[in-house]
Design goal:
The protein has helices spanning 10-19, 22-29, 34-43, 52-65, 71-82, 88-101, 103-115, 141-167, 192-210, 228-231, and strands spanning 2-7, 121-123, 129-131, 173-179, 182-187, 220-225. The protein is α+β, with helices and mostly antiparallel strands and 233 residues long.
Length: 233
């Protein structure tokens, strides 16, 4: 069997922590559907009335706007990545609603932009420093916002992998693949449940290695099956 686990919406969770956005952090603490919450805010409706298409649009806003996308880029991103058409005025309105809903994200982006004028470096939660002035194109806001989030996500997965051997000790299970925020194990039939538990514990441990004081329910999703497609649920 394959046991497959990934971090749920990890980039948004990391951005919420780095930005210390109280609304987004509270949503995750309560186990809320953040995409539905964003969709309701953008459309000005109750979360119970959000449609599938509106939730798709909200996913584009959530994953795009945390990295400082402008309205034009957001509209293109929503179409190419999520199959949702947005006019330029709609994208502009969505940006305004998003930042009004998550003021901590807006504050973090403003601080990052102001800081970049005098300091071109950015840092991950693990302490790695990237000097954007030494790269082609120099300092860019999107890179300055993206690096601490995705860089921290990479550190988190590495920390999880470091804990994996101990978590799987005594089990007929082995690591066969990992990519981005996902880890894949090959496991003997009789050890599937224990391996799934161990894998989740290692991944939560990877998160705690970087954010020891942050409680984040429903952080990891793990499933098993005879092939990757089945194990993804």
């Amino acid at each position: 069997q394959l046991v497959v686990a990934d971090y749920s919406q990890i980039e948004l969770r990391i951005a919420a922590i780095i930005a210390n956005d109280p609304i987004m952090l509270e949503a995750y603490r309560l186990g809320a559907d953040l995409h539905k919450k964003t969709a309701a805010a953008i459309a000005g409706i109750a979360e119970t009335d959000v449609t599938k298409a509106q939730r798709q649009l909200a996913k584009a806003c959530n994953f795009g706007l945390i990295y400082g996308m402008g309205a034009k880029t957001l509209a293109a991103y929503a179409s190419a990545g999520y199959g949702v058409a947005m006019s330029l005025p709609e994208a502009d309105k969505a940006r305004s609603k998003f930042f009004a809903t998550y003021p901590g994200i807006h504050r973090w982006q403003s601080i990052t932009k102001a800081r970049g004028i005098s300091d071109p470096t950015v840092k991950t939660a693990g302490g790695l420093i990237r000097d954007l002035s030494k790269e082609p194109g120099g300092w860019q806001l999107t890179k300055a916002l993206n690096t601490p989030v995705q860089g921290t996500g990479a550190e988190m997965l590495l920390a999880a992998l470091a804990q994996l051997p101990k978590a799987l000790s005594g089990l007929d299970a082995q690591l066969i693949h990992h990519v981005h925020d996902e880890i894949v194990l090959e496991v003997a039939e009789g050890d599937v449940a224990a391996a799934r538990t161990g894998l989740v514990a290692a991944m939560v441990g990877g998160f705690k290695a970087l954010f020891p004081d942050v409680d984040m329910p429903e952080l990891v999703e793990a499933h098993s099956g005879p092939d990757w497609y089945s194990a993804k649920g």
